[in-house]
């Protein structure tokens, strides 16, 4: 599952409507309305993280105007998940179209948590939360009086992209890496299986 010349094999689980659009139009993009529909009452939490992501990620791989948000893909099929009735796509994607990061790092961002450079940095942040009597870290985003801490947490999220250049230069054979794509192209499909 590593780099194959200038391409990489990735896996993504997608709904029937995405597959239909992809096969008919040969390219598919994510729209904001799809995220709001999918996550409903908690969509604002996801959009906080997603909006930060697109602002930063478009500096790594250029985002087209049609791509409001990214598709998520994985280097291991096990991580791609999926729901019954969805489809598992095996993609062969040009590596310059991909942005790589660790699954757990992105999960921290989705939970509006600090993403330290290393364990020591994480410990310093947790100690600071204890000193400030903050027991629920996401309160930094939800409550109005933590603007400085909110800025610090968002700045820490830049650590998400620290593996991108390494993976693109040496490839990856294993690990819990996730990726994003600004679009899906029909020509990238190596295999489609119903879940």
UniProtKB/TrEMBL annotation:
Can you name this protein? Answer: DUF3841 domain-containing protein
Q: Which InterPro entries match?
A: DUF3841 (IPR024211)
The organism sits in which domain of life?
Bacteria
Species of origin = Clostridium drakei
């Amino acid at each position: 599952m590593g780099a194959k010349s200038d391409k990489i094999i990735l896996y993504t689980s997608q709904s029937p409507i995405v597959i239909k659009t992809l096969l008919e139009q040969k390219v598919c993009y994510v729209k904001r309305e799809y995220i709001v529909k999918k996550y409903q009452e908690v969509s604002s939490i996801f959009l906080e993280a997603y909006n930060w992501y697109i602002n930063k990620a478009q500096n790594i791989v250029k985002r087209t105007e049609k791509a409001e948000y990214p598709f998520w893909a994985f280097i291991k099929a096990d991580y791609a998940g999926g729901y019954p009735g969805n489809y598992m796509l095996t993609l062969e994607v040009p590596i310059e179209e991909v942005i790589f990061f660790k699954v757990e790092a992105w999960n921290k961002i989705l939970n509006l948590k600090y993403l330290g450079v290393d364990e020591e940095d994480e410990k310093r942040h947790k100690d600071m939360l204890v000193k400030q009597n903050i027991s629920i870290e996401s309160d930094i985003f939800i409550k109005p009086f933590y603007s400085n801490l909110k800025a610090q947490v968002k700045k820490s999220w830049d650590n998400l992209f620290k593996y991108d250049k390494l993976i693109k230069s040496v490839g990856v054979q294993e690990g819990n890496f996730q990726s994003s794509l600004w679009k899906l192209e029909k020509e990238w499909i190596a295999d489609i299986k119903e879940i």
